[in-house]
């Protein structure tokens, strides 16, 4: 799918404080299958083909970006897809499930207690199935996300970035960025989930896949706005202002929270003068329709 653009942005107090900000526009990788979801899937899709599997199966909620991306990848690349969905089947499908259904994905709905066990229903024949974890984070996903660092290094020809900032959901993308930097610069992962467990999750990936342990990263837990898919109007208003001034759409579940957090840290003089900061836009914009539908809020309405 090529290399996503690196766009220099000016917003808020960044210029006055002597900072240079760049946004890695992974949201522009593909009109449907974009962001970190494509990076996490690309090597897994190749592996599925190598081992001769024609069906992709994974897990997620009714508004899961991963389920959306998996169904799109299946339709684009000729895989059958199965989604194991958390919770009872809704009477009316939301935007994500409608899209996935139209893309040919078959659903199996599990009660929340059954879903927690991540057990695949016994009547699904696994002989032709390539299984991906919830959120898509595994070693091949981390390998795909390492390429973000390689691309940015090429795009920033004159000097390297001092900070990489991104939203953290499962920790796979952040682990890839940390591994790609190999101890250079600083990585700030902005948790979109309530709780401090994501630091442990990233450490788990590093140990599980025998990756080098680096100390140049931290998980920022102050900007989750109450937890996954939770929000406050302060966040929505920020996303609207950012779009009006930069033309860049942010989603309220992932990247919007990260960008809000970065500019709050700028206001608090967290970053030294002269810092070059890369904000990784991990996509997720297809989830805006479901968010608006779910909460009755128009984010990008004129």
Brief synopsis:
This protein has 302 residues and is α/β, with parallel strands linked by helices.
Task: Tell me what you see in this structure.
Helix 1 packs across helix 5 (139-155). A 6-stranded mixed beta sheet has the order 1-2-10-7-8-9. The longest helix is centred in the middle third of the chain and has 17 residues, at 139-155. The chain has helices at 35-50, 65-77, 95-102, 112-116, 139-155, 172-181, 198-208, 233-246, 255-267, 287-295; strands at residues 6-9, 20-25, 55-60, 80-86, 106-110, 129-131, 163-168, 186-191, 217-220, 276-281. The mean pLDDT is 94. With 302 residues, it is α/β, with parallel strands linked by helices. Helix content is 38%, strand content 18%. It is globular and about 60 Å long. The chain folds into 2 domains: 6-31 and 139-295, 3-Layer(aba) Sandwich (Rossmann fold), CATH 3.40.50.1100; 36-136, 3-Layer(aba) Sandwich (Rossmann fold), CATH 3.40.50. It contains 10 helices and 10 strands. It starts with 5 loop residues before the first strand and ends in a 7-residue tail after the last helix. Strand 3, helix 2 and strand 4 form a beta-alpha-beta unit.
Search tags:
302 residues, Rossmann fold, 2 domains, six-stranded mixed β-sheet, globular
Counting DSSP H or I runs of 4 or more residues, the number of helices is 10
Low-pLDDT ranges = none
Spatial gap, N to C terminus? 31 Å
What level of helicity do the residues show? 25-40%
- Morphology call: globular
Structural class: alpha/beta
Oligomer: single chain
Indicate the proportion of strand residues: 15-25%
Alpha carbon gyration radius: 19 Å
How many E-type strands? 10
Give helix and strand order, one letter per element, not per position: EEHEHEHEHEHEHEHEHHEH
CATH class of the largest domain: Alpha Beta
Q: Which CATH architecture of the largest domain is right?
A: 3-Layer(aba) Sandwich
Kindly give the count of domains: 2
Strand order of the largest sheet: 1-2-10-7-8-9
Give the biggest sheet.
6 strands, mixed
């Amino acid at each position: 799918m090529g290399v996503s653009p690196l766009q220099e942005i000016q917003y808020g107090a960044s210029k006055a404080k002597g900072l240079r900000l760049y946004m890695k526009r992974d949201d522009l990788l593909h009109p449907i299958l974009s962001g970190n979801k494509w990076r996490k899937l690309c090597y897994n899709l190749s592996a599925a083909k190598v081992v001769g599997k024609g069906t992709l199966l994974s897990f997620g909620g009714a508004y899961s970006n991963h389920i959306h991306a998996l169904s799109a990848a299946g339709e684009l690349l000729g895989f059958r897809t199965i989604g194991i969905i958390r919770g009872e089947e809704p009477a009316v499908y939301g935007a994500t499930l409608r899209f996935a259904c139209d893309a040919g994905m078959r659903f199996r709905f599990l009660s929340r207690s059954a879903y927690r066990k991540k057990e695949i229903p016994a009547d699904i024949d696994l002989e032709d199935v390539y299984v991906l974890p919830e959120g898509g984070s595994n070693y091949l996903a981390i390998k795909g996300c390492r390429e973000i660092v390689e691309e940015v290094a090429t795009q920033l020809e004159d000097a390297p970035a001092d900070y990489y900032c991104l939203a953290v959901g499962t920790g796979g993308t952040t682990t890839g960025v940390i591994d790609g930097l190999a101890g250079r610069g600083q990585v700030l992962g902005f948790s979109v989930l309530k709780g401090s467990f994501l630091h442990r999750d990233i450490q788990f990936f590093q140990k599980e896949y025998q990756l080098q342990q680096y100390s140049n990263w931290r998980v920022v837990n102050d900007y989750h706005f109450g937890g996954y898919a939770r929000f406050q109007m302060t966040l929505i208003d920020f996303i609207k202002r950012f779009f009006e001034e930069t033309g860049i759409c942010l989603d309220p579940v992932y990247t919007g929270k990260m960008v809000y957090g970065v500019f709050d840290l700028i206001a608090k003089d967290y970053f030294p003068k002269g810092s070059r900061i890369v904000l990784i836009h991990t996509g997720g914009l297809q989830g805006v329709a479901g968010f608006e539908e779910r909460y009755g809020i128009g984010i990008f309405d004129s």
